Amino acid sequence: MGLSPKRVMPFDSGAYHDKIMTREGHAHNSLPKEFFELPTLDAARAVVGLFFGSNLKYYDEVPLQPTPVDPSSNTCVETYVSLINR
Fold first, then answer.
1. Phi, psi at residue 70, to the nearest 5°?
2. Which of 30, 11, 7, 18 is nearest to 82 (CA)?
3. Which of 28, 34, 53, 63 has the smallest number of Cβ neighbours within 10 A?
4. CA 9 to CA 33: how far, in whole Å?
5. For residues 83 and 18, what is the distance between their CA atoms, to the nearest angstrom?
6. 16-38 in b/e burial notation, b at 16+ Cβ within 10 A?
7. Sequential DSSP letters for 8-45
8. Which of 57, 34, 35, 33 minimizes the C-alpha distance to 84?
9. What whole-number distance in Å separates Cα of residue 57 and Cα of residue 12?
10. What predicted TM-score, i.e. pTM, was given to this entire model?
11. Which phi and psi angles does 55 have, rounded to 5°?
């Protein structure tokens, strides 16, 4: 019997909570980590598709360049882009 995830985050939520990503310069801890929670597995697939193009590139940690969104549009997007390019 497989376990279903309770929450899906686009990053290591423990490292975000412990401000490791902030110290590395990749996140604004002014936003609660729950703000980034993805509502469904389809949403997680969409994030992978938008920023990486394929699951293989996601697993190989090769984001699309240039990023398909303007990271200066808001803090949430800026954080996503920084974490993904990390």
1. -85, 110
2. 11
3. 34
4. 8
5. 15
6. beeeebeeeebbeeeeebeebeb
7. B-SS-HHHHHTTHHHHTT---TTS-GGGG-BSSHHHHH
8. 57
9. 18
10. 0.65
11. -65, -40
pLDDT in tens, 48-83: 898 889 999 988 988 887 666 666 666 777 777 777
Is there a contact between 9 and 37 (Cβ–Cβ < 8 Å)? yes
What are 48's two structure tokens?
């992978």
Q: How many Å apart are CA 47 and CA 23, to the nearest integer?
A: 24
The token duo for 7 is 């929450």
Residue 84 gets which letter from DSSP? H
Within 10 Å of residue 11's Cβ, how many Cβ atoms?
A: 17
Q: Structure tokens of 23?
A: 């110290």
